[in-house]
Amino acid sequence: MSAAIEMKRASSFAGHAEEDFSLHPAHVQTEDFSVFYGNFEAVKKVNCNFPEGMVTAMIGPSGCGKSTLLRAINRMNDLIPSCRAGGTMTFDGENIYRKDIDVVSLRMRVGMVFQKPNVFPKSIYDNIAYGPRLQGIKNRNDLDEIVESSLKQAAIWDEVKDRLTTNALGMSGGQQQRLCLARALAVKPEILLMDEPTSALDPKATTKIEDLIGQLRGQYTIIIVTHNMQQAARVSDLTAFMYEGTLIEFGATRQLFTRPREKQTEDYITGRFG
Amino acid sequence: MRLETRRLLDRAFSSLGLIAIGVMALALVVILTPIIVRGSGAFIFRSTIEHRKVMFDQWDRGNAGRLETAKAEVAAARQPVYDMLAAFNTELDAMPRADRKPYKQSLRDLEKALAGLLGPVPGERTPVLIRQQYGATRWDRTQIKLDDVLTTEEWDYSDPTALGKLVRTPRVEQFRGTKLEPLFPYVEQNIKAMMQPRWTCYWQFLFDTSKDSHIFGGIGPEVLGTIYLTLGAMFFAIPMGVIAAIYLCEYAREGRVISFLRICISTLAGVPSIVFGLFGLAFFLNTIHISDSKSVLAGALTLSLLVLPTVIRASEEAILAVPRAYKEAAMSLGAGRWRTVMTVILPAALPGILTGVVISMGRAAGETAPIIFTAAVSVGRPLLPLEALSQPTPALSWNIYNLCTEHEAVDEIRHVQYGMVFTLVAVVLLLNVFAIIMRARISKKLRG
């Protein structure tokens, strides 16, 4: 990618003209939401709305709790024995931290792409079909259709259509990450969580993922954690800045990057710390 | 550290490592060579006409016509021996009583030695024991039996400060000047014509039932017994072990109870096998009466307890080595714990689990102590699978020990012992090779 394009990308925000995002219906909403690891409070009483169909970026220095907050949305933190949550988090108006919630069906509605490509050591086809099969889809034709459409959505179909039965671990890192995206899309989620999805990828593969996020915008509510502020500026409509577990500032990306309300935000985005 | 010092240390370590590996390889060669050389002697050896007779009479093997011809040839070659004996007997009858006496015992000994070499005298009543119905069946045994005919053994204890010394004196001395004198050179020179040695491959050794406590025949029931016991042990140990490992790794919450359990498992792995054997007897047979007598079932259960800690440990290691990312990916796609384990974790852990299973299989196949009281008998027939629930069985490991320590004619069955050891080692090695190949194939599939 030439430097000129890079500059252009960095200066142009993904968001349309200034919009009042508070008018959009919230898809995920938190109220005084906290996450503890043992006695350590990693996320402190966060209140925010992730609007439907928008791309929200979460930025902040390492250890600020943004990944923890992201992973709280599909309750991946349940895997950590000492982790517990306080306050409420609602998804489509339903508190997902209620005692009787079915975590498995929640996770089927929330897709996730991780920091490192984590394809299963199975064939490309089986990787994509994994989620649909969990949902009980056994018909070969249906599966074929889902696999094809998911791979097309992730813009990787043309690269892999001739080797669907080969092991997914044989692909390049960028391809693997797009495969992970396709795998997440195959379960037809409503929300897509991305935990630093490009941090392990080269610039070219990064561009492809970012382009994909642009294409998926509007169809899914996308929440992306990133360390790369240019990336946040390029791909997101909204940006949340977190610091030491607290949500410092949350607003339209253009506004947050150009006229931050908080001093801390300004310091962070201008590179004075973090 | 200075460069020279570091270099010296590196060199020292690599040479020490090489020496260690070399010593190990040497030990392996020293152990395996006699097993292979002497063990294959049970399968491929020079058999005599007696072996062919045994095969024909007891197992209906061989060509009747050709055997009759060979028998006739051999009989013709042996006839002079019996003629000489008859002539000597006539000579003896003609002697005065006092002269006759010293020959009596010598003649009896000679006849016994001859029977050992050639079998019973034709035309006499057939002995009851099968071992007395035939002469030496193997050429190496023939040489020894021939020595017995030609010489007498005596132990010389004249020097009280030293161990006794074996002195062999030619038997011919006892019969100087009699009609038996030419017998000895005749036997020595015509031994081949009398025995007809021939290279044979007795591969059925692996499958034949033994006759007359292993003096004839093969090790079929022992091999089958070992297979039953090993597979039986694995039948119980694999599901129990893998499920326990999954529980410990994926379901159990870390806590005092779990760490106590882990200590118990490690301790179990260090319990001597004879203790397992006694436990098996006390629990499976005497307490819950799983069968009326010793049985393959009781033995397999005891063995499965013995190898259980190994299976659990290996499976646990394998499961813990599965990348966390796989688990997260499966969970994020909506897989429950059970589905995650079955579709992602177990397949990825399979190579490691397999290694543990094979090590355990080798151990179960070779263990003796746990089956002494629970499953093993020294002589038996091959069992049908259903009989294994209630019947005891011979097994390679136990019979190797048993033949060494309790057999009444241990010299006659050395080749069987070595054949058993050879077979057992081969079985364990084959299992290992099989597992290594399987492991490699699965790993390759996983790696893509």
Binned, the helix content of chain B reads: 55-70%
Could you say which overall geometry of chain B the principal axes of the C-alpha atoms support?
elongated
The first-level CATH class of the domain at 24-120 and 191-269 in chain A is given as Alpha Beta
Spatial separation of the terminal alpha carbons of chain B: 44 Å
The CATH topology of the largest domain in chain B comes to: MetI-like fold
Question: Taking strands numbered 1, 2, ... along the chain, how are they ordered across the largest sheet of chain A?
Answer: 6-7-8-3-9-10
Q: Just give the CATH class of the largest domain in chain B.
A: Mainly Alpha
Q: Let me know the CATH homologous superfamily of the domain at 24-120 and 191-269 in chain A.
A: P-loop containing nucleotide triphosphate hydrolases
Biggest interface pair, residues each? A-B, 31 and 24 residues
Q: Give the uncertain stretches of chain A in residue-range form.
A: 1-17
Helix content of chain A: 25-40%
Q: Which structural class matches the secondary elements of chain B?
A: mainly alpha
Indicate the CATH architecture of the domain at 24-120 and 191-269 in chain A. Answer: 3-Layer(aba) Sandwich
The spatial strand order of the largest sheet of chain B comes to: 1-4
Order of helices and strands of chain B: HEHHHHEEHEEEHHHHHHHHH
Largest sheet of chain B: 2 strands, antiparallel
Total count of domains of chain B:
2
CATH topology type of the domain at 24-120 and 191-269 in chain A: Rossmann fold
SS field, number of helical segments of chain B: 15
- Taking all Cα atoms into account, the compactness measure Rg of chain A is 19 Å
Structure description:
The complex is a heterodimer of chains A (274) and B (448). By secondary structure, chain A is of the alpha/beta class. Chain A has helices at 3-11, 66-73, 103-109, 124-134, 140-153, 157-160, 173-186, 203-216, 229-235, 253-258, 263-269, and strands at 26-37, 40-51, 55-59, 83-91, 94-95, 110-113, 191-195, 221-225, 238-243, 246-252. Chain A has eleven helices and ten strands. In chain A, a hairpin with a 2-residue loop joins strand 4 and strand 5 (94-95). Chain A starts with a helix and ends in a 5-residue tail after the last helix. The model of chain A is unreliable at 1-17 (pLDDT under 50). Chain B has two domains: 49-198, no CATH class; 220-447, MetI-like (MetI-like fold), CATH 1.10.3720.10. Chain B has 15 helices and six strands. Chain B has helices spanning 3-40, 49-59, 64-94, 97-118, 139-150, 183-195, 220-251, 256-269, 273-287, 296-320, 324-332, 337-366, 369-372, 396-406, 414-447, and strands spanning 44-47, 151-156, 165-170, 198-201, 210-211, 216-217. Chain B is elongated and about 105 Å long. The A-B interface holds A 74, 76, 79, 81, 104-105, 107-108, 110-112, 114, 116, 118-122, 130-131, 134-135, 166-170, 180, 183-184, 187 and B 253-254, 323, 325-336, 339, 343-344, 347-348, 445-448.
